[in-house]
Write a structure and sequence with these properties.
It holds the Pfam family Mpv17_PMP22. The protein is an all-alpha fold. The chain contains ten helices and no strands.
């Protein structure tokens, strides 16, 4: 039985080939010229895909191992309700008390120890000190991370670290395969990073959100593959096939 990485290699090669051919069709039809397959551009894009697969494959595995699971419908419903009540008076009081617990404690009514009989003063002081230490200094049990927390962390890492890494690797590898010098590749990274990142931020957040909140588990591979073809067409057109 082939390994998961080998299957991903095969799928990536086929999808990159399809996206590059479609990009060539779009580009040549736009120029109203008869279609002629640019074999060199096709091989360059397939090679880029093969080089990038193991990096993303193990990155996704590490990310899933660090933040496992997906948000449930109940967690999404609670999160939506929390957003709706974010600016309510009770929520504002809760936020203030969590941010400034000592101020909240000082604002609470306290017993006047001096007004109590002498034989009860020591007991009241001990009780106050015990409750104070239990409330603010006692270690609290660590709550287990929810599926919503895992989704948010994976979403943020996908839009930031993974986005920057993939864009830089795309510009470097595709121009290296074209035979460009390192000086020119460095210049192209600075020139092309911003427009590709803007395009990715318009596209990838929607894909990530749908993939991890709406699309069923047994349909996520198909959905991700289809979206990968669309992104591959964009990258192929950007690489001037």
């Amino acid at each position: 039985m082939p390994s998961a990485l080998l299957v991903t290699f095969a799928q990536s090669t086929v999808l990159n080939a399809i996206s590059n051919v479609l990009a060539q069709l779009i580009d040549q039809r736009k120029n109203t010229t008869p279609f002629t397959l640019n074999t060199l551009a096709l091989l360059q894009f397939i090679t880029y895909g093969i080089l990038i697969v193991p990096i993303n494959f193990y990155w996704q595995r590490a990310l899933e191992a660090r933040y496992p699971g997906f948000p449930t419908r109940a967690e999404l419903t609670r999160a939506l309700r929390s957003w709706r009540s974010l600016f309510s008076l009770s929520a504002l009081r809760s936020i203030c008390s969590s941010l400034f617990p000592f101020a909240a404690a000082s604002a609470a009514p306290r017993i006047n120890v001096d007004a109590v009989l002498p034989r009860h003063r020591d007991k009241i002081k001990e009780k106050d000190e015990y409750e104070y230490e239990s409330r603010y200094w006692a270690p609290r049990p660590r709550a287990s991370r929810s599926g919503l927390h895992s989704f948010v962390m994976k979403f943020l890492f996908d839009q930031t670290i993974a986005g920057v890494m993939n864009i830089i690797l795309f510009v470097v590898l595709i121009n290296f395969l074209k035979g460009e010098t390192w000086d020119k590749i460095g210049h192209l990274v600075l020139l092309d990073f911003t427009p590709i990142m803007i395009a990715r931020l318009k596209y990838r957040p929607v894909v990530s959100t749908l993939m991890y909140t709406v699309i069923p588990v047994d349909r996520r591979v198909v959905f991700g593959s289809a979206c990968g073809v669309i992104w591959g067409i964009y990258l192929s057109l950007y690489a001037v096939v």
